[in-house]
Structures are given as structure tokens and as C-alpha cells.
Amino acid sequence: QVQLVESGGGLVQAGGSLRLSCAASGRSFASHAMGWFRQAPGKEREFVAAINWNGGTTNYADSVKGRFTISRDNAKNTLSLQMNSLKPEDTAVYYCAASLRYDGAYYSPPDLEAYTYWGRGTQVTVSS
User: Fold this and answer.
1) Would you state the pLDDT for residue 108?
2) CA distances from 20 to 69, 72, 82, 113, 122 (A)
3) Which of 42, 103, 112, 124 is most buried, taking the most CB atoms under 10 A from its CB?
4) Is the pLDDT of residue 79 over 90?
């Protein structure tokens, strides 16, 4: 059974940092793109960041560029999101996702439909 389990969420003041982790089990995603998405109350799930199979290509939403960094460790089957300079508008449930599609070595898609497996999410709350 494939599982993605997020951890590392919590409550932080504006300007602070958090590091999210996602542990994958049941299969390896070393050959596939992975990503982070978030969903705030009353809003649709949105793209945050994605990374290609070997970590050489990354893709970020404009709202987090320069503040968030996505990375992966294929040997450990884990995905991470380092979040710095957090803002109240970053408050959301953050989801880890893994794709089974392949569209070239640099594939790091921002669209939800590209991802097959999803975690249950971890809450991030940024206070002002």
C-alpha cells in the first residue's frame, strides 16, 4: 500500500521558519516528480513547489519564490519543504504529492492532475 505521510507542521510567528517532511512508503518515487500543494480554508488546493526525479529541476509558485525550498532524498524516499520568512497568508494545510507521469528528465509539474498519490496533509499556521 502506497503512503505519503507529512510531518513538521505547526504554529509559527510571521517571519519564522518551518521544515516540512514527507515520507513515502509502499513504492519508490525515485524516478518520478513530487510536489507540495496547500489548501487554505474556503479556498481551492494550490500549487506550492515541485521537483523533478533527481532534484535537478525545481518549480515554485510566485507567492513562495525566494522563501521556500523544495528538496528530495531518493535514497530515503523522502521529500522536504523548507519554509522561511513565513507570512500569515501561508497558513494552510500542506500536502505532499507524487506523480506517476513522465514527460522528460526535467518534469516538475504544477498542475494537480499530474499527481496520483497524496498525503493527508499537515497544518501550518502563521500568526501575525
Assistant:
1) 93
2) 10, 11, 6, 22, 8
3) 124
4) yes
